[in-house]
Amino acid sequence: MTKDRNKQETAVIHDGYESADMLGSLTPPLFQTSTFTFETAEQGEQRFAGEEDGYMYSRLGNPTVTVLEEKMAGLEKGERGLAFASGMAAVSAILVALTKANDHILCSSGLYGCTFGLLSMMNEKYNISHDFSTMETKDDVRSLIKPETACVYVETPINPTMKLIDLKMVAEVAHEFDIPVVVDNTFASPYLQRPLELGCDVVLHSATKYIGGHGDVIAGVAVGKKDFLDKVQMTTQKDMGGVMSPFDAWLLIRGLKTLPIRVDRHCDNAEKIDEKLRSHPNVTRVLYPDDTEHPDYHIREKQMRRGGGLISFEIKGTKKDAQRLLNNLHFIKIAVSLGDAETLIQHPATMTHSVVPEPSRTDMGITDQLIRLSVGLEAWEDIWDDLKQALDQL
Ligand SMILES: *Cc1c(COP(=O)(O)O)cnc(C)c1O
User: Fold this and answer.
1) pLDDT greater than 70 at residue 3
2) Do the domain assignments include residue 356?
3) Average pLDDT over residues 212-234
4) pLDDT at 6
5) What local confidence, expressed as pLDDT, does residue 107 receive?
6) Does residue 184 line the site of ligand 1, with CB under 6 A?
7) Residue 325 in domain
8) In the β-sheet with 310-315, what is the strand arrangement from edge to edge?
9) In a domain, 130, yes or no
10) 2 domain residue, yes or no
11) Does the beta carbon of 202 lie inside 6 Å of ligand 1?
């Protein structure tokens, strides 16, 4: 069945669903139900005992959500997918499942702000410590692994500096110590980067971003080994309860069908905008992984199909100038989030990374002059015209 569907463009449309099983409905039905009825008491007993397959209660599984999980597993080339109420529900369920009190987590330097917050909370409450590493070399990783290290947690590209981490290298070192590697693949999407194929163990997404792609849903997904995710489903997901709603799964199934064409268009546009930004006199630095001048370009070539839709850049001037640039835009929207049809712009130092204390922020390369752009699906000429007129006014 799957053998003629191994191209992602086809898989996003057909995987995980047979219309013949659903009265011929071309698109997967929305099973907007909290619970499922049993024909007999004995059937209920067998379902709960795991002796008969079938749905019981939507926190334990829902057919619409299953379709999305199967599509995501296929895209990330993993054994199974597990859907969550948000990206953070996925991050927290996976990290809590992998750790116990007094463990240690080794992280990439540069993490999504709420993931950073979760790690701080786990440290305070359960003494689960963490270290950050730039992970530029094998020794960077190896030297921070301790006997109590329970997992390595990586984001690449890193938000908002667009630094890249060599996932194959990190997985090789972690596996010398039998430590699983978890990758937040939100920025790349499975169309551009597949961490499991590079040897990592669990991949997760804020499906709010490129997976949904239309700015209308908050959701998360994890993909990995069936044994591990079955356990997560029956422990941290079931009992902490961060499950995806059937309607959100339905929206994501719809969004996923166009993932490859959307992401290609995001990349086409970002390449043009990168080139234009580089030649603007009020721009001092541009950070885009697909640019040959990017310090990690060689990693992009190795592990990502293309550079993605996010660009960060620094302008001449002060924080006020950065804010003035945002205020002078006509149709580009000032907003956090990314991966939507609309081009979105934000100021990391005062928005997504405002909680990071000033010295660490500077260490992470997040200056007052740094601006992050999520390049949308509009005509690139219009995006550039809007950016240019705002940059010209500085
Ligand atoms: C948005 C985001 C998250 C959190 O996802 P939510 O869906 O908002 O909970 C996690 N990691 C990255 C890289 C993100 O961009």
Assistant:
1) no
2) yes
3) 98
4) 67
5) 97
6) yes
7) yes
8) 283-287, 310-315, 370-374, 344-346, 333-334
9) yes
10) no
11) no
